[in-house]
Design goal:
Blueprint lengths: L3 E3 L15 E9 L6 H20 L3 E3 L2 E11 L4 H14 L4 E4 L3 H11 L5 E4 L15 E3 L4 H14 L4 E6 L4 H16 L3 E7 L8 H9 L4 E5 L2 H13 L6 E4 L4 H5 L4 H4 L3 E5 L9 H14 L8 H17 L5 H9 L29 E7 L2 E8 L3 H8 L4
Parallel strand pairs: 2-4, 2-5, 5-6, 6-7, 8-9, 8-10, 10-11, 11-12
Antiparallel strand pairs: 1-4, 3-4, 12-13, 13-14
């Protein structure tokens, strides 16, 4: 079902200039409903907002032509079949050549399996499964770094806190969460620590007391939680309710508002989120502060920390189209993306490789950060080790 079509040139409707302008349709495939909508809907909103900003600033200049962006968005429900169907509609029915969004790895991987053979460019956002950018797909780029890039940094951070016995509770049947934990464990082991148990939950689970009771009996000195925002929030709340008084670390990328739908601020106090350095208002750059304010005004809710991955996609696409000088030759646009410096408008704090936003794998990198819940807010505490060039070289060796 087609959920929404966002004509982002409406602000210019009625002007005489519009008659001489052309329209470029761009597509969004993302989780707009269901549990993953906490990531997907903010991404779709971010693309809409960026497109409106680009249109208001004069559009995309290609030779003598000016293009206004029209966004067509479909709900992939974070489901591989739904995502494949959504992208096929964008390609075959709507004639879209540039497709953005993609918050979740399973759905994204399904589309990545065939997009190489299409006359299109795919820009991936929050989906963190490493294999998405190890397939050598020339017309695919991703703005978020892979989960294991961050997991290794998180393992070092937790080890440096002196923790030796860490219990893991996570959505471990999801590939990118499992790879985060594997990389975390490798660095924890290197520092003399260990994961004493790996307890799993389903993404729709909300009662985690059986797993937490088992963890409590094993007397860990820290807990690592990996999963979507809502189940993670239940874990943090229920850990307090069960009297588990040990440091809690996580990998979630949820906003304050999303966590507070389930847990109180007091129950969240002291929780760490070890993730790429994403949008958090108290540590944002000027671009991030402006993005937060504009998004909040437009949509009536604060943006999720990971939503700028899609916003940044839109500006990267604009610059690549203008550099390639075409909206028809998708190979030229894909090649321009691989040569692109980091656009001035982006929100995330990217670490260029050889001066470029995307490496030879089509992968972008941000710094990694340790965020802690303090008095009702996520507060950026410190950088985590982030060697984008070294990880890029590693990624290039993986088939």
């Amino acid at each position: 079902m087609k959920l929404l079509t966002m004509t982002t040139a409406l602000a210019l409707a009625g002007t005489t200039a519009l008659a001489a302008e052309k329209t470029l349709d761009i597509g969004v495939s993302d989780a707009l409903t269901g549990g993953a909508a906490v990531y997907g809907l903010p991404q779709a909103n971010a693309v809409q907002m960026a497109a409106e900003e680009i249109n208001a600033a004069g559009g995309i200049e290609v030779g003598d032509d000016t293009y206004m962006l029209n966004v067509i968005a479909y709900d992939d429900k974070a489901n591989p079949t739904e995502a494949s169907n959504a992208v096929r509609k964008l390609l075959d029915r709507d004639g879209v050549k540039f497709i953005l969004g993609f918050c979740c790895s399973g759905a994204t991987g399904a589309v990545a399996s065939f997009i190489e053979y299409e006359d299109a460019v795919m820009l991936v956002g929050n989906a963190a499964e490493r294999s998405i950018t190890t397939r050598e797909i020339p017309n695919l780029v991703r703005t978020r770094p892979p989960a294991d890039y961050t997991g290794a940094a998180a393992g070092t951070f937790v080890a440096n806190k002196g923790h030796k016995r860490v219990a893991v509770l996570g959505a471990l049947d999801v590939g990118f969460y499992a790879s985060y934990v594997d990389a975390f464990e490798k660095e924890l082991n290197a520092a003399g620590g260990e994961i004493i148990t790996r307890e799993a939950f389903g993404l729709k689970d909300r009662d985690m007391t059986p797993q937490l009771t088992k963890i409590r009996e094993q007397d860990p000195d820290a807990i690592l939680v990996v999963g979507y925002v809502e189940p993670a929030a239940f874990i943090y709340r229920q850990a307090v309710e069960l009297g588990i008084d040990v440091p809690r670390y996580g990998f979630t990328s949820g906003s304050e508002e999303q966590f507070l739908r389930v847990a109180t601020s007091e129950q969240m106090e002291g929780v760490w989120d070890l993730r790429p350095t994403e949008l958090t208002l108290l540590s944002a750059t000027e671009n991030g502060i402006a993005y937060h304010a504009n998004y909040s005004e437009k949509f009536g809710i604060a943006p999720s920390p990971s939503s700028p991955y899609a916003y940044d996609q839109t500006y990267a696409l604009k610059d690549a189209i203008e550099a390639a000088g075409t909206v028809e030759d998708t190979e030229a646009v894909a090649a321009a993306l691989r040569e692109l410096p980091v656009p001035d408008e982006v929100v995330m704090q990217y670490l260029p490789v050889d001066g470029k936003m995307f490496d030879e794998n089509g992968q972008a990198y941000t710094s990694n950060g340790a965020f802690q819940w303090q008095d009702g807010n996520w507060v950026f505490v410190q950088d985590l080790p982030s060697d984008a060039a070294a990880y890029s070289a590693f990624l290039s060796t993986i088939d």
